[in-house]
Amino acid sequence: MAAIELEGLTKDYGEVLANDGVTFDVERGEIFGYLGPNGAGKTTTIRTLLGFISPTAGSAQLLGRDITDEGDLLEAKRRLGYLPDSPAFDETATGREILDLHASIKGDERSGELLELFQPPLDRLVREYSRGNVQKLGLVTTFMHDPDLVILDEPTSGLDPLLQQRFAKFIRAERERGLTVFFSSHILSEVRKLCDRVGVIRNGRLVTVEPVESLLDRSGKFVRLHAAESIPTRALEIDGVHGLESERGAGSSAGSSDGTEYAFTFTGDINTLLERLREYRLLDCTIEEAPLEEVFMRFYGDEETDAGSAAGDRVPAGTGAADDGVGGDGDV
Amino acid sequence: MFELTRYDGRHRVRGGIYLSIGLSLLAAMVIWVYPSFEAEVDLDQLLAAYPEPVLQVMGVQTMASLGGFLSFELYTFGWIILLGLYLAYATAGAIADDVDRGRMDVLLSMPISRSRVVAERFAAMTVPIVGANVLPPIVVYVGARLIDHPLAAADVLAVHLLSIPYLFACAGIGLLASVVFDRAAIAQRVALGVTFALFLSESLLSGTDAEAVGAIAPMRYYDPNAVLLEGTYDLAGAGVLVAMTLGLLIAAQLWFSRSDIP
Q1: Cβ atoms of residues A233 and A244 within 8 Å
Q2: Which of A36, A170, A266, B137 is deepest in the core (most CB within 10 A)?
Q3: Is the pLDDT confidence value at B111 over 50?
Q4: Do strands A221-227 and A241-246 pair parallel, antiparallel, or not at all (unpaired)?
Q5: B110: nearest CB among A71, A77, A328
Q6: Chain B contacts of A75, Cβ < 8 Å?
Q7: What is the pLDDT of residue A315?
Q8: What residue spans of A129-269 are helical by DSSP H?
Q9: Which residues of A touch B7 (CB under 8 A)?
Q10: Does B254 touch chain A (CB under 8 A)?
Q11: What would the pLDDT profile of B223-232 be if each residue is shown by its tens digit?
């Protein structure tokens, strides 16, 4: 039994189709990254899973429990930790009072060690907390009852780099102990560091689910060339070159010589490329893993038209209409 | 069970104490002015000078006894209007404020059902409702003796005890507004507006053909005059208020359980 199962999950707000037939499983013991730009529908999926909003169509299970049955879902929530994208706590209470309330409702197995790790200022009023401190308190409340599954919506936003690192280390250690993690992000480096598998959502539709390595393999390399003299662009017109830009800016007329610096993403056979470049004298050449933002662009840049036709006259989530409708935070 | 009630209740204790002190001061002031008022003003003439609707709205029956005087100066004004509006307003924030500020997601991610959240939050309103009625009856009873217009202890106790179901019903109006509107500011304004409209409909329409409209107003079932002047305790009215409160609570639970949290 998977930790999370979604089957055709759909949330239709009328104006916005926030989730459109989203189907995937999160296996027990894995770290699953849910990727998409702001407004793609990540938060909608998560809030539907938690029963805050009811699906228009489709079904889902958390730890084998049906999310549309409140009693069933409550059973699942006993073993679930959740950190929303911008967690909020009673401003008139101290962090300690918040922890006491959480402990009284869901239990407290390990707040001591979590407090040592994340160190929110417990004796201050939440009103005086910085965003980072609220996030730290949120992390403690998410993990304090030692859940089997945690759902984290943009967990590292608001954390400084040191804490992000500490968080990543903590998550990996928890996975070793058998924890299942489902987290959403639009920060790709974070996903790459942590995830076993990745689901990519765009305009409310799941684009792909795959192991993070294969996403990286498909993403190709980012190539930067500095040639002694200009290379004709047509010489670089080989399979697997995407988004070729030269020093004088993109879009200059094809075939002419375009200066001496080139940058492009390359998904083809690296030997073909090197073969081709041998005839030119290079001053510098870097070939590195493509930034995941580029991979992202590939997913989001290509099929611009098909979602529009599928959704008919409605505007898919993530485009302008998301602003005036539901959600408020832009992330519906 | 009741973890949330305990938490909320603790956070309402201070407000409850302030409320009790403030209302006690109001009670002390009303009692303190009564002897000079009685001595220097021709009360019947004063009553006759007021237009009938004003007397009706303020629940004035007589000023010729301390009981009648307290009944409108303290209980109609302080309890039926001020406290009633305050509780409708305060309870209107109970759910909507959390939704508004994004705190509801954290709360509902815990193993606690939506109807339990509504019930526990509502139950915490017991603190200000009972708190407001702790100190003032003592002030009223002792104050009345000090100015030599003693009131029956049972009547003073009854006028406060019977106000409790009334105040819960007002809080119930706020609770329903709190789940229907997800913006706290709107829920609070609606709760205030509805409660005040019910008060006016009950007091202005009584004695007219449209009197039946006032039957849905909680104010109809709590009458300080009857307690302080005649010593009659309207237990059936209290029963209606309890039923009203439960009805509002259940309606709020059903509504909140079925709606999306925005």
Answers
A1: yes
A2: A36
A3: yes
A4: unpaired
A5: A77
A6: 111
A7: 40
A8: 131-143, 161-176, 188-194, 212-219
A9: 97, 100-101, 104
A10: no
A11: 999 999 888 9
How do strand A65-66 and strand A80-83 relate by DSSP bridges?
unpaired
- Contact between A46 and A115 under an 8 Å Cβ cutoff? The reply is no
Q: Which of A53, A88, A106 sits opposite B110 (nearest CB)?
A: A106
Strands A205-211, A221-227: parallel, antiparallel or unpaired by DSSP?
unpaired
Cβ atoms of A222 and A263 closer than 8 Å = yes
Q: Does B236 touch chain A (CB under 8 A)?
A: no
Percent of chain B with pLDDT over 70: 100
Token pair of B57 as six digits: 């709205």
At A296 the pLDDT is 66
Type of residue numbered A229:
E
Question: pLDDT digits over A166-199, tens only?
Answer: 999 999 999 999 999 999 988 777 787 889 999 9
Sign of CA dihedral B31, B33, B34, B36: positive
Angle between helices B153-161 and B135-146 (to 10 degrees): 150
Q: How far apart are CA B219 and CA B200, in angstroms?
A: 9
What pLDDT, on the 0 to 100 scale, is given for residue A220? 74
Contacts of A105 in chain B (CB under 8 A): 3-4, 110-112
> Which residues of chain A are under the pLDDT cut of 70?
219, 248-259, 291-332
Closest-CA residue of chain A to B1:
A105
Average pLDDT over every residue of B235-245: 96
Please report the DSSP string for A50-86 in residue order: TTSS--SEEEEEETTEETTSHHHHHHHHTTEEEE-SS
Q: How far apart are CA B79 and CA A151, in angstroms?
A: 47
Chains A and B: how many Cβ contacts under 8 Å? 70
Could you tell me the two tokens for B127? 């603190």
**What pLDDT, on the 0 to 100 scale, is given for residue A295?**
67
* Residue A149: predicted pLDDT: 96
Q: How many CB atoms sit inside 10 A of residue A275's CB?
A: 11
What's phi and psi for A14, nearest 5 deg?
A: 90, -75
Q: For residue B58, is pLDDT > 90?
A: no
Residue A248: the pLDDT is 56
Sheet holding A261-266, edge to edge: A241-246, A261-266, A221-227, A282-289
User: Regarding beta strands A57-62 and A65-66, do their DSSP bridges make them parallel or antiparallel, or are they unpaired?
Assistant: antiparallel
How many Å is the maximal CA-CA distance in chain A?
72
Site from A102, A142, A324 to mutate, B interface, most B CB atoms within 10 angstroms: A102
Non-local CB neighbours of B218 within 8 Å, separated by 6+ positions? B84, B166, B169, B170, B173, B198, B241, B244
**Burial class of B43 by CB neighbour count within 10 A (0 to 12, 13 to 18, 19+):** middle
* ipTM attached to this prediction: 0.88
Rounded distance between C-alpha atoms, residue A282 and residue A228, angstroms: 6
Residue A304's pLDDT is 43
Is the predicted pLDDT of residue B47 greater than 80, yes or no? no
- From chain A, pick out residues whose CB is under 8 angstroms from the CB of B8: none
Q: Which pLDDT does position A229 carry in this prediction?
A: 83
